[in-house]
Write a structure and sequence with these properties.
eight-stranded mixed β-sheet; Immunoglobulin-like; alpha/beta; 310 residues
Length: 310
Amino acid sequence: MTIERPGLIIADRWQDYRLLDCGDGMKQERWGEFTLVRPDPQIIWPRHRSTELTAGGSEGAGAAKWEKWDGFYHRSETGGGKWEYRRPLPDSWKLRYDSLGLTFKIHPTSFKHTGLFPEQAVNWEWFSTKIAAAKKAGREPSVLNLFGYTGAATVAAAKAGASVCHVDAAEGMVKWCKENASLSGLADAPVRYIVDDCLKFARRELKRGRKYDAIVMDPPTYGRGSTGEMWKLEDHLWELLRECRALLSDQPLFFLINAYTARLSPTVVANLLAELMPARGGTITAGEVGLPIQRDGKVLPCGIYGRWET
């Protein structure tokens, strides 16, 4: 087994999305035709004060900072927050990822999120290549996506030719995934949509004798299952990983772990995969994912990943 640590990989192939600027705990982003400003705890450097970045990407000297926005998320000191809108925005709109022919529904939620993590495009590109190669070799790859959220990874895997099982404990997220699949022309693709606790589902799949050629997961720090089961990362992740290992086929393609919690580092994820897959050989790669900041060329780190592949 080989373990590689390439550092940071950057999602820089977007056309409809741009991270325009960052500073003072906030980020200014263009989502299609709309510009949103949202908080991000990692942005502890100051804003540039001398210029304004327009939605089109050009600079106007002396303009007031970040005057061009359509939605601004104000975080509350007591937790949560709310959106302020400068003009009426649609309840949702579409965003394309042209590189893979994907279309997603964007909807600003009460928790500041939009239903999509654009930095994950680097992982969609990676596993789409793996799936396409397997298809070319005559295989019909199957993918299990746990903690699948609104299903961007599910849609990308299905677009590449895999059959996918999408699991999330929130019924609304699973419904959103179906909408994303339909927007990407995949309404009739072989996707199973499951509302369930991920650990319980994995155990039932074992009893049913199911196998998967690849597994993707994005485990939260804390969470609750579909019937109130408590999930705590440090208590339950290894248990889930062991169950997932038993779900892998005899010739698995990959195992991908994404994380947004400060409790995991790329090295920890690499160590978990090395402990999980010692008899399988293969290569483990771990590092950060990030987005380029258009204003000044910096990169915003947006999470970590660990990949095992044959």
